[in-house]
């Protein structure tokens, strides 16, 4: 079983919005922050820059976009403060621990699959007591490919020693997570916590919370399958 981290296990968007609005005094700039972040993460995955440089340049670019031009030292200070606030704000969704405990009790291999920084994602998992559940943590910058690239999903399956057809991936992003996994030969599961009205592509499963995942795996076992057990 492969699981995305941010906004699947951890309520990252709420924490990120809170940290950003606290530092800039505005609550309407999160979409801009996300767009700039996605562009810079793509540069990390392409091997053009490392994560540490990306964080600085992303923040510098964002501030410049809103008309705030700072010296490098001030940008670094802003980013350090943002990370401090962010780290104190991380929270698990209520359905996470019961789901992970169920998967662990079923002896299913579990991987966390993320496009974000390895150091920060591993810190989140450790801070929130989730590290013990995962057999593998796949980081886009370390793999050299990012979701929805099939290489990312296939690399995880190789580490877990299972065929893609034996695996399922769950994430909050319809195309990056669910469609990407489906196209890579896994079963793609879209975690739609908000109950949106987006058109769901054929072959993608939808759940409203991780509390629905065990039932999906049991009731759809013949079609989904679960990763090879120990």
From TrEMBL:
Keywords: Hydrolase, Magnesium. One of its GO terms (molecular function) is hydrolase activity. It comes from the Bacteria. Pfam families: Hydrolase. One of its GO terms (biological process) is small molecule metabolic process. The keyword Magnesium applies. Its cofactor is Mg(2+). This is Putative hydrolase of the HAD superfamily. It comes from Amycolatopsis thermoflava. The lineage of its organism: Bacteria, Bacillati, Actinomycetota, Actinomycetes, Pseudonocardiales.
């Amino acid at each position: 079983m492969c699981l995305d981290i941010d906004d699947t296990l951890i309520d990252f968007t709420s924490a990120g919005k809170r940290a950003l609005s606290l530092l800039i005094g505005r609550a309407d700039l999160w979409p801009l922050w996300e767009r700039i972040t996605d562009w810079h993460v793509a540069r990390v995955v392409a091997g053009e820059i490392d994560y540490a440089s990306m964080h600085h340049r992303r923040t510098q670019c964002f501030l410049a976009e809103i008309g705030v031009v700072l010296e490098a030292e001030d940008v670094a200070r802003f980013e350090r403060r943002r990370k401090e606030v962010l780290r104190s704000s991380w929270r698990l969704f209520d359905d996470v621990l019961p789901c992970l405990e169920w998967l662990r009790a079923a002896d299913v291999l579990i991987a966390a699959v993320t496009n974000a920084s390895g150091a920060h994602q591993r810190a989140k998992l450790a801070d929130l007591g989730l590290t013990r559940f995962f057999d593998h943590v796949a980081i886009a910058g370390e793999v050299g490919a990012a979701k929805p690239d099939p290489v990312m999903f296939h690399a995880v399956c190789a580490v877990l020693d299972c065929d893609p057809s034996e695996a399922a991936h769950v994430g909050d992003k319809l195309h990056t997570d669910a469609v990407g996994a489906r196209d890579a030969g896994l079963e793609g599961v879209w975690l739609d916590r908000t109950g949106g009205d987006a058109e769901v592509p054929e072959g993608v499963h939808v759940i409203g919370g991780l509390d629905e995942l065990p039932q999906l795996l049991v009731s759809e076992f013949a079609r989904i399958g679960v990763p090879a057990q120990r």
